[in-house]
Amino acid sequence: MKNKNIQKGFSKLPVSEKRKIAASLCDDAAAAINQMESFLHPVPEVQQVLEGLSENTISNYPLPYNVAPNFIINGTTYMVPMVIEESSVVAAASSAARFWASRGGFHAHVKNNKKAGQLHFLYRGDINKLRTAMPGIEEFLRRYAKPVTQNMEKRGGGILTITLKHRPEVWDHYCQLHVEFDTKDAMGANFINSCLEEFSEGMKSYLRATAGFNENDYEPLMAILSNYNDQCIVHVNVSSPLELLEEATKELSAEDFVRRFIMAVHIAGSDVSRATTHNKGIMNGVDAVILATGNDFRAIEAGAHAYAARSGQYRSLSTATVEDGIFTFSLDMPMALGTTGGLTRLHPMASRSLQILGNPSAEDLMMIAGAAGLANNFAAVKSLTTTGIQAGHMRMHLSNITMQLKATQEETQKIKDHFAGQKVSYQAVAAYLDQLRNNQDS
Ligand code: MEV
Fold this sequence. Notes:
Blueprint: H1 15-23, H2 29-38, H3 44-53, E1 65-73, E2 76-83, H4 87-101, E3 107-113, E4 115-123, H5 127-132, H6 134-144, H7 146-154, E5 158-166, E6 174-182, H8 189-209, E7 218-226, E8 232-241, H9 254-268, H10 272-292, H11 297-308, E9 318-323, E10 326-334, H12 343-346, H13 348-356, H14 362-384, H15 389-404, H16 409-419, H17 426-441
This protein binds (R)-mevalonate.
(R)-mevalonate (MEV) binds near residues 381 and 384.
């Protein structure tokens, strides 16, 4: 059966033609083209950069670019750029940052900053012989990959360790070289993948050239970095004596606030349904910084959730305790980030974000993104265990509702005034707008 929607040679068509074909799928093709064109960047060089980042680009998809001020991290004050569409996230991050700014700010350190990758292969020869030869193989591979590693080595990074793992329980003859890297301020994905591909070829060369080995015993399968960055961990915490938390909420004493807060975090540490949402609250802050700085949020997401499940059960990434009258709220999570190379420099707004942050090193950025994650997590758990999430969330969402209802500026202001002390819901706002309009008519 032929499907007439299958496009052949689509990627080779001019952009305007691709736009026309996509627009033809919409109700009003002319309006769709106009809209897509209106989102093109007015500076042709910038549009060219954006189109160069992907394939089949027919327009741009703008998201709000926001800043959260007053993040004090290890004594330095940052204004944190965040790209996110969810209305309450930046407000929550800013209010948590401000709250902790007067209580010593965020304390952070990078526990370790190693990236990893694997060469997966089958080895049908004598595995013990291969294992014994590993010191020589390692030396050979390091030499073989020199053209790829020398620049990184000049910057103080490179290959750290190479470990042979034999995993016949997964597949007959299955082995891997598990390789650790130091990629300095680069995220390092291309560097790691290139090194591993060199290793794949290098293994073949070694086995071909070394007496007692046969290159036909070796079948390379794939060479790729790992996003399970359990050796690239940032730690962030906030802490305060209970007496400084008396004003944390209007409703509760410091003891009650902390008791309820710790209970909520503990639940996220033991219940997968709650843990997933709790961690989503952390990723609200983290992803927004990752996006603003041109890093790969899918890699960070994948790594974070795998790390959250490292005990065999998916758990909260953050923990909360009170000891000797001191409340501490901490986050440990993988954060493989870069501040040089890739999109961080190509995307004009990504490099602007790094400037706003004072051109941080990769490790500084790990701590900043971690602090944003902890800030959002703090704000969410605080709301959940006090007023409930909807009060603040819906207040922030009010502008979205007035836009959906096509309220005028004057009507929007009246709606905002009216709902300042009231529960917000779509129905309530729609009813109030009706009432405003009916009163005007009568
Ligand atoms: C919403 O984006 C995030 C929260 O659901 C996080 C949480 O429940 O902790 C509020």
